[in-house]
């Protein structure tokens, strides 16, 4: 047990990052595969079905924002308390995570019940899109208990350096989803044909399987933290500490939802196909971004632990190595988006119109991939050391202050110009991230 507890403070940084990141990167790649397969099957229903799911995407993004943001706060707090050798406080943070997950589920169950149909009617008068979208959104929100509980346990385990069980849970959820998608969407093996609603049902069943697996693991296996409600007392200081990092992360990811809604409003002024294309882009870019996010899942607890242990050398080494690996992944993604653009779009039964607007769109947007790698790395550093507000500032700058206004102004020229808003926003936010990181180093990291 002692050896496991200290590996983030003792093992050489590069092999440590590899050992902690590779499982997360593999699981995130499986998640990316699920995202593509899900839309692949939905696209076979109709382009309206793909548009409905694309319009629901920002609501799903908001749901994931609350789930992931809360879990990031838990991860950061648990890792820092372990680094400070404060075991009871680490245990308390982990236990609070289960309660917070249940509370967040109730919030989104109400969203699904009350706001699904009004949300879609605010975008389109196409009754088929409204009906399919309402079914999809209500199921995903009302039965979201799996994702909210699973991700908090997952991030708790990652904070202790345990990356294998989180990887297995994500793979279990995604593979379950992939298997059930065609069965529920097209009505195979005696199951009724449910279309878009079937895709939603497959999603939530996969999430529940992943949650049940991690509940079993946390109850039956030994870990560096203990989740127990015996003699448990709600501690609002712990909740405050979780959300001091988690809330900026929630807002940061929720801003992504606002950005997508804004972009959809701009794009639908050209054609509904542009909205469907934007949804397809998010599925495809997940193959590039998800491995980087998996890398950050491995890097973040290393930074948090060594910040708590006041080991500047290991912390900075993790930042440098993580940045290089992220940049290489993004560079490979850029090459893929430039050389195989048409083939990528044809995965989703792209019409000739979608190919005509999609090929230049994907190539233009992918210019931002490498700068985005550094932005993601700096954001991870800010969260790991408990300065989540700095990540929030960068996210607001990128998506609300620069990207949406730039896209709106460029839309006055033509549709191809709109896509240049992405590299413009990423370059501005990368410059700002570097400046804020330098300030953090001078004021905090330099004195460790």
Describe what this molecule looks like in 3D:
The two termini are 27 Å apart. The relative contact order is 0.13. This protein is an all-alpha fold and 448 residues long. Helix content is 84%, strand content 0%. The mean pLDDT is 86. It is globular, with a radius of gyration of 21 Å. Helix 2 packs antiparallel against helix 10 (272-308), helix 6 (145-159) packs across helix 8 and helix 9 (236-267) runs parallel beside helix 15 (388-411). The protein is built from 17 helices and no strands.
Short description:
The chain is mostly helical and about 450 residues long.
Q: How many alpha or pi helices? A: 17
Could you tell me the number of beta strands? 0
Largest sheet: none
Structural class: mainly alpha
Present the secondary structure layout.
Blueprint: H1 2-10, H2 13-45, H3 47-83, H4 87-121, H5 127-142, H6 145-159, H7 164-186, H8 196-220, H9 236-267, H10 272-308, H11 312-339, H12 341-346, H13 352-365, H14 369-384, H15 388-411, H16 415-418, H17 421-443
Helix pairs in contact: 2-3, 2-7, 2-10, 3-4, 3-5, 3-6, 3-9, 3-10, 4-5, 4-6, 5-8, 6-8, 7-8, 9-15, 10-11, 10-13, 10-14, 11-14, 14-15, 14-17, 15-17
Q: What features would you highlight for this structure?
A:
single chain; 448 residues; mainly alpha; 17 helices
């Amino acid at each position: 047990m002692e050896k496991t507890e200290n590996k983030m403070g003792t093992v050489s940084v590069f092999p440590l990052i590899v050992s902690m990141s590779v499982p997360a990167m593999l699981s995130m790649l499986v998640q990316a595969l699920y995202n593509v397969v899900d839309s692949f099957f939905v696209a076979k229903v109709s382009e309206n079905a793909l548009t409905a799911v694309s319009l629901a995407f920002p609501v799903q993004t908001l749901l994931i924002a609350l789930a992931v943001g809360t879990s990031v706060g838990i991860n950061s707090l648990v890792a820092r308390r372990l680094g400070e050798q404060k075991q009871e406080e680490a245990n308390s943070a982990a236990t609070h995570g289960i309660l917070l997950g249940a509370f967040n589920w109730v919030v989104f169950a109400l969203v699904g019940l009350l706001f699904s149909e009004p949300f879609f009617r605010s975008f389109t008068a196409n009754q088929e899109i409204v009906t399919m979208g309402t079914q999809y959104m209500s199921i995903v929100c009302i039965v979201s208990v799996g994702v909210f509980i699973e991700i908090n346990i997952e991030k708790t385990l990652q904070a202790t350096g345990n990356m294998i069980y989180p990887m297995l849970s994500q793979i279990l959820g995604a593979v379950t989803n992939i298997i059930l998608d065609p069965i529920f969407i097209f009505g195979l093996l005696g199951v009724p044909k449910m279309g878009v609603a079937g895709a939603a049902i497959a999603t939530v069943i996969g999430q529940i399987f992943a949650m049940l697996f991690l509940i079993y693991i946390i109850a039956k296996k030994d870990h560096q933290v203990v989740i127990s409600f015996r003699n448990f007392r709600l501690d609002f200081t712990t909740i405050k500490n979780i959300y001091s990092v988690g809330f900026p992360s929630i807002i940061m990811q929720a801003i992504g939802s606002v950005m997508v809604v804004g972009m959809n409003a701009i794009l639908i002024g050209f054609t509904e196909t542009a909205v469907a294309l934007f949804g397809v882009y998010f599925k495809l870019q997940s193959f590039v971004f998800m491995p980087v996010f998996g890398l950050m899942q491995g890097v973040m607890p290393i930074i948090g632990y060594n910040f708590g242990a006041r080991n500047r050398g290991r912390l900075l080494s993790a930042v440098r190595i993580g940045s290089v690996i992220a940049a290489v992944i993004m560079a490979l993604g850029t090459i893929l988006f430039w050389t195989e653009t048409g083939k990528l779009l044809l995965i989703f039964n792209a019409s000739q119109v979608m190919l005509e607007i999609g090929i230049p769109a994907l190539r233009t947007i992918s210019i931002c991939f490498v700068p985005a790698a550094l932005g993601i790395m700096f954001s991870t550093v800010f969260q790991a050391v408990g300065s989540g507000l700095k990540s929030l500032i960068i996210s607001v700058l990128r998506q609300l202050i620069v990207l949406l206004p730039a896209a709106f102004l460029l839309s006055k020229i033509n549709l191809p110009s709109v896509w240049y808003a992405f590299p413009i926003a990423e370059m501005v936010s990368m410059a700002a991230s570097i400046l804020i990181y330098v300030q953090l180093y001078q004021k905090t990291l330099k004195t460790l």
